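A common beginner's mistake is to predict each chain separately and then try to dock the pieces by hand. The better habit, illustrated here, is to supply every component at once so that their relative placement is modeled jointly.
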Amino acid sequence: MITINTLFYLSGLLAIVASIKVVTGKQTIHALLYLVVSLLAVAVCFYLMGAPFAAGLEVIVYAGAILVLFVFAVMMFGLAQDEHLHAPKHGAGQWLGPIFLSVLLLLVLIIAISNSEIQQVLIPKVIDAKDVGILLYGPYLLAVEIASFLLLAGLVSGYHYAKPRQAMQSDDNFQVGDEI
Amino acid sequence: MSLLALLPFYPLISFLILISFGKKLSWQLASTISIGAMLLSAGSSAVLINQLGNSESQLITAHLWSWFSLTTTQGSATINVAFYLDALSAVMIAVVTGVGLLIHIYAAAYMKSDENFSRFMAYMNLFIVAMLILVLADNLVLLYLGWEGVGLCSFLLIGFWYQEKANVLAARKAFIVTRIGDTSMAIGLFLLFKSLAQLTIVDVNQAAQLSWKIGDADAYWIALLLLGGAVGKSAQLPLQTWLPDAMAGPTPVSALIHAATMVTAGVYLIARMHEVFLLAPEVMTYTAWLGALTLLLAGVAALAQHDIKRVLAYSTMSQIGYMMLALGAGAWSAGVFHLMTHAFFKALLFLTAGSVILALHHQQNLFKMGGLFKKLPVESLLFIIGLYCLVALPGSSGFFSKEAIIAELWSSPTAGQGLWYCAILGALLTSIYSCRLFFLAFLGKARGNSNLEQHQDGHQENSSQGHLLRLPLILLALLSLFGGLISLDLSSVFSSAIATQAQTNFINEPSWLHTVAIVTPFIGIVFSWFYFKSYRENSCDNIKSSTGAISTFCKSGLGFDRLYQYVLVRPYCCIAKINRRDIIDQVLMLSAWYTKLWYEVLSASQNGSLRWYAAVIGIGVVGLAGVVAL
Amino acid sequence: MMITLLMVGLLLSGALAWYVEGKKVHSARWVALVSTVFLLVYFVLSIIFSSQQNYSELTVLTRVTWIDAFHIEYALAIDYLSIVLLMLTLFLAIICVLVSWHEIQEKAGFYYFNLLAAIAGIVGVFCAVDLFLFFFFWEVMLLPMTALIAIWGHEHRQFAAIKFFIFTQVSSLLMLVAIISTAYFHYQAVGQLSFYYQDWLALDIPLELASYLMFGFFIAFAVKLPSVPVHSWLPDAHTQAPTAGSVLLAGVLLKTGAYGLIRFVIFLFPEASHQFAPVAAVLAVVSILYGAKMAFAQTDFKRLVAYSSISHMGFVMLAVFSFNEIAYQGAIVTLIAHGLSSAALFSLAGMIYSRIHSRDLNDMGGFFKSAPRMGGFALAFAGAAFGLPGLANFIGEFFSLVGAFSAFPVLVVFAAFGLIGSAIYGMVLFQTTFQGPATATLSDLSLREIIISASLLMLLIIFGLFPNIILQYSHYIGVVL
Amino acid sequence: MTTIALTHVLILASILFVIGFVGVIVRKNTLFMLMSLEVMLNAVGVAFIGAGSAWQQADGQVMFILILTLAAAEVAVGLALLINMQRRYRSLDIDILARMRG
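With all components supplied together, the output reads:
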């Protein structure tokens, strides 16, 4: 019997598995696709938690825009030899430490969560785009402005760093950037 | 300037000329300058001694300049560069300049072929300067100046052939061992000054009589410390080890410094400070015993030596032991008299030995000599004269002086009968080792492959050198034979000593004492005539020296060198070596090391690896969350 | 004005030397030589012909306000102690210039500037009577000295320079704390801040506070002197410094420590110093013996001489803390004599280094054969180091020990063992370099080197035979003590 | 309609976060690090949404939107840097850049 709960757990599991595949993947494109899967799974979760607007944004912006950015960038690289050279080695030793660390982190987080008094039950109530919009353009207006500046800065610096080298060398002001 | 003031300046000027222009001077010029300066000194000292005899006060003084003054609460003690000539220092300057002159003449011939001849003569002159300052000083600081000066010259002359490692080490040993004694003397001076606020000899002697009683603690310590200085310089127990090694120097040096003059400086010091010693009878007893022990030890060691010069060195040590014994027994005049006669005959012995060594192409090993009596008759005769005096056979100068010492021992309050027996035993030993030396070197058949004849021809060609070599020898031989007839009148110097002695001189002496003393050397000679028969009559090419343990032990000077090596030298070098890097520095540098450690740890963490930084952030989060959660 | 002119003259001629070296190579050394000779002559003449003939008490020459807010003054004063040390400084300045004549080829202009600036700082140290000004000069002399070691030194120069800098800097910070505390105490007692020496003399500081303040000063001067256990900068600095640097360090810089002990520790805090004297005397004796022993163990010529300096400065400290006029005179004579003799030995090390390019005693031996003049001078200077009578060092050691004997008889007996130790290292130094089988053929001394050695030896002999030249001056301050 | 426990949401977020974190630490390829970073950001978003729905408030979603913009800006700059790096070193190995040692 499929309930919201089981759906949630399934999609969560999917997200986890997909994320693991992202992290352990060898081929960049495959990993990116796994990332898309993971994001979509998370979007499902959002929807189940009563946040359809967020789920939409997740699909459109994350899986749609950002990941496409990734794909384009990867296509520009032509990473054949690099993938081969720098693929993670399948020695257990290399993974052991990070995994131990992560498990530890996980445990700690779980303990932290279970200790606190936030063990409430989610009351299923849909928070739609209107609610979000009211809040966003009310109390959070400043944050929105800052976010826009952030995006502008990302745009400018992205443009700057991705500029071909010849253009950079001709410009004395960007000598520092040249060093990177 | 008075004649006395100028006395040390003749050799000083000669030294300065020779050291400045040494390389440019010919042999004639260099030897003329140095011998001329010595001649002037010897002449002036003869005149001075004559003047001294005629003067009322038995005293001549010369004040050159004020050196410095020491201000204390009791007033100010001025230390002058001033000379003071009384009967005691007159004996010394006579010996220093007289014997010095003869040895200079000999040395000029002996060292003629050396490329550094003028440097050698310069050092010899400098030595005479220092020695004259030592004996003429009117205060103990100036005396100390001369004392160190002769030490330095001794160092320079022992190490004159500095290219040989052994000579260098011998020179170093001589300087450092005597320096130990000097330090003791310096501490004695500090104590003396603290106690009396005086350092001028006359004032010290007066003040000592006034402010101390017999057996005063200050007097005891001062006398003991001064004795330490004397022991170092005069090569007595326990600082005697440097003297045999000092024979590494050229033979005239051994004759001048290590037989006639410098080594007797200790005797002079004690005689000079006798008023302090009289106030410390225990120290006088120590002096006598040290002298007696040295006398016996050196006599035994001389019996086993192979090197002709080392035999003479041990003999010197033993004769100085006699002088110390005399001083310790309160026989001041006898001690100084023996100092003088010993200077004559020991210089003679050394110089003759030098001639023999020269004739044998620097062969010093007794077992490679033999049969020289026929080949070098003149030298042999001179050597016999020297030994005659050394053994103190009747009629010789040594006889007069040694008998005088032995005669006073029995009844001396600070010496006594035990020391008398020591002295007699010493005399027996002296005659035995003298005979052994003579038999080995001059009798029997020639051993070794020394081509003596060929050298004799060369000797004939260079007859002026030969004459120069023989002239001082003959003069010294005459002095040795008839020096005993010189009557020393030191009563003006030792008046207080004689006064104290007069009270105690009533102990009955057995009548056989003198007979025994006179007969002893003959017993020794007769004994050796039979005991060393093999040395005397041998006809084979080689005779073996005994290699037994006792013989080796005696040959090494009764093991003192080895003892000091293990007890003092090795530990000092060892500590120095361990701590070469300076432990304190290491400790202080620990702070630098600690800082550097942290620098390295922290800079290793800043490795520029992004993933590492991220991991560290993770660790930090785990840590923080752990703290919050648990 | 005299001293101010002296310092300005030194600085200006240093700057001039720096400037002209850029125009013409090798001109800096001439500028430095002429100016140091001129300044020495100027100083001697101005002392002789000054309107005031008697400097037995501290005579204030200049006193103007410097920093008004804290009552810091620019105050200079001299007495015979300063005059004697100033003459030594200026004389050794000439020697320093002469020994660097051929040795310094790189950045020579800057080198002479540093040299003269360091000397200017030292001159200031010997004359400043405002404690803040004293501290200022103390730092002024430190920086060019560090530069001299760090730029023109031998193989480990950076390390040695940093070590030298840290040791002196840390210790002088303690002194700064003591200076400020005393000034503050003056403020509490009188109601006004003052760094002026004479004001401080009038202060009546409670004994407990005085001991702490004295200790602050003592540490700074003990490091500079140096005394065991804070001596360890010295062997490195002396060894690594260029020849002139070593001459300046041993000849003059160490004397600033002794000067400070006498001028500030003893005079400002007499009771506290009396209380502290046994400790200081023990440290001094340990320095004497330890220095002598360490000197014996060294295989590096300059390091050996450096450790012998520690030993000699131990005599100074022992003498200073025995509160005795004779000992005090001995300390001053030792300062002069050691200034000359160690300068001579370091110059000698420089001369040998310029010939065989090594300071290692194992590389040396038998030089007497090819360079007898050098050997003669070496023997004389080694003799000075082990206190041969007739040379100035003997007078110094004799006075120090005689004087100290009345205060610390047992310690002096131990200190006297230093005489044996000094004979041992002196012999090792002379014999391993100049005796034994010849290892190399050296050219004998050049005229310039003969002038250096002969002038030093002459002074040593003159002061050794006629010590009254110095003693008549040191006598005055001894009386004050 | 049954409810989803906030605890479970947060656990999901934690797991995702940790996976991303492991990726950042372990991978040498900068591109994968960037992707892992996205996973981490996403995990944070999950946590916010979960919290927002637990309290029935829209703030959680606002925060999610801000994270979204942050992620977009980050990816833009990051990819630009990667392009630059690829151009310069012909490699995306992050350890090549580990030259800024203490």
